[in-house]
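User: Here's a chain of 230 residues. Predict its fold as tokens.
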Amino acid sequence: MDIVRLENVSKVYVTGKVKYPALRNVSISFPKGRFIAVMGPSGSGKSTLLNLIGGLDRPTEGKIISCGRNLEELTSDELAEYRNEKIGFVFQFFNLIGYLNVLENVMLPMAIRGVNEREGREKAMNILRILGLEDKVKKKPNELSGGERQRVAIARALVNDPELILADEPTGNIDSVNAKIIMGIFRKLVDEKGMTIIMVTHNIELSRFCDMVVRLRDGVIENVEEVSEL
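Assistant: Prediction complete.
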């Protein structure tokens, strides 16, 4: 079963009179319950692909079916609901809110969704405990290491039980030791929870943690490989 399907998707950015085609007529399906790496050189369209799947941007042409929804048919409010309920985002620069502590950062998506504070606190604490951060709940992001901040960002991405995790260069700002820890967490989420993770990365060494590698170049899919075949 596929969790995401793109049909003839193109994205063209326009700056003044200049048109920049970031994606060109891309068609691909992402199977449910897999850990998928999207790789390619800078400017190949990797982040654009992730933003379109996450409903952060809309394609110029084509159709995207994600988590059972045709994103083209959703209003701005429905897209916001889709992002909050179906998608968990993990970014390279963590995107944690500096004036909130760890627990408050993780609880935020549930507050937006309308979950009561007690339930939200219990759920956030449980996830933080699983990720080994129970002793960091009162600390602010600037008091944490890069690896700890990324684990907080993962916890925040998980609290609403998303169907799909989208990770954009999640190890780009942490050292290799913590990068392997993060990959181990992602691998466990796929193997034990049946989650689907689509991760953009430049690091070819991280592909060994994945099930499938999609390679992009100049906005088109160069090839799709099963990791066992790499």
